[in-house]
Design a protein that fits this description.
With about 350 residues, the protein is an alpha/beta fold. It has a domain of about 230 residues: 3-Layer(aba) Sandwich (Rossmann fold), CATH 3.40.50. The protein has a 5-stranded parallel β-sheet, with helices on both faces. Helix 1 runs parallel beside helix 7. The N and C termini lie far apart (about 75 Å).
């Protein structure tokens, strides 16, 4: 009798887990279906961006373009690949690729003041390609790098990571891509995330995520800090960052290049360092994967914040002076002195 009771309890436990797994998959299917049927987001044309043929990248800068980019009215020129740089084809120098978002792109600055341009000016034997794209996160940057490796064969890849690179989505994705493209992209991203993250990604309304991203850096300081901390404490967001680091490490091993992982602080309340622990965790994750790391928090904390900003009220984009400090720190690394 005892054996039958034990078997019965085991059977009930299996049935219980099977029920919840089945229910979760059913909810995921219903959310997927409702997203496709009822999402109201449609794509639109942008003077700056085009939809990428790489679904993870989502979008790219328009190639061979000349335009004024809001909100700074900077005059921007892009090359044949849509980057704010010269074409490298036929260049005999060793190659460095710099990946990142609008910080690498150089929003608010002339091209000569970008990090890549300043670094290249001080390295006689390297070409430094600026592949920064406004709004990109680490997942998109890694997908772009994979596309660029066969073209440039880099010896060094410099990742410039900003605090807002944790966000899973951005305005350009939500506005440029159709609802079906967003759906397909979300499914591809979610594939490598835990089941609860897959369910949540499909449950979140695309518009609400867009509004959250758009307003997040217009909040008061206290609310902004709460949002950033909550975002980094979320397992789904953190998993996406670490998955992207894993992909970057695999690319580095396969293609024999070194990775320098640079952490850029937000350009306000630097001395109080509200995100110090987050940066330490990111730095540790990068070092665990064999990346060379450079945390600019201490260097920037010793300077006047206003001098570090591209514009007085811009807390995200470094000035030419701040970029020069970063370049100075890069050149102190052993990788540039061996």
């Amino acid at each position: 009798m005892r054996k039958k009771k034990k078997t019965s309890i085991l059977s009930l436990t299996v049935k219980k887990y099977f029920f919840w797994i089945t229910l979760a998959l059913l909810v995921l299917f219903i959310l997927d279906l409702s997203f496709m049927l009822f999402s109201k987001i449609e794509s639109f044309e942008s003077p700056y961006y085009i939809v990428s043929d790489n679904i993870l990248m989502g979008y790219e800068m328009r190639p061979y373009s000349n335009f004024l980019l809001a909100p700074y009215d900077d005059f921007i020129q892009t090359n044949s690949l849509g980057f704010r740089d010269d074409d490298l084809f036929g260049n005999s120098k060793k190659s460095i690729i710099m990946i990142g978002d609008s910080v690498v792109f150089g929003l608010g600055l002339p091209e000569n003041d970008t990090i890549a341009s300043q670094l290249e000016a001080l390295l006689s034997n390297y070409s430094v390609l600026n592949t920064g794209v406004p709004g990109y996160n680490l997942l998109q940057e890694t997908a772009l790098l994979e596309k660029m490796i066969p073209i440039t064969n880099p010896e060094i890849v410099i990742v410039v990571y900003s605090i807002n690179d944790i966000f899973m989505d951005n305005n350009q994705i939500n506005y440029l891509l159709s609802k079906n493209e967003i759906y397909a992209r979300n499914r591809l991203i979610a594939k490598n995330l835990p089941l609860k993250c897959q369910i949540r990604m499909n449950a979140q309304d695309t518009l609400s995520r867009s509004v959250l991203f758009k307003t997040s850096f217009q909040l008061e300081t206290d609310n902004l800090h709460k949002l950033v901390f909550a975002t980094y404490e979320d397992d789904c967001n953190w998993n996406q960052v670490t998955n992207s680091m894993d992909k970057l490490a695999a690319l580095a091993e396969k293609n024999d290049f070194k990775v320098v992982f640079v952490l850029i602080p937000m350009l306000r309340t630097i001395k109080e360092s509200p995100y110090k622990d987050i940066y330490s965790s990111l730095q540790q994750e990068a070092e665990n994967r064999g990346f060379i790391t450079l945390n600019m928090l201490k260097t920037f904390a010793s300077e006047d914040e206003l001098l570090l900003r591209a514009k007085p009220n811009d807390f995200s984009h470094p000035s030419a002076f701040a970029n020069s400090l970063l370049v100075d720190e890069l050149l102190k690394l052993d990788i540039f002195n061996s």
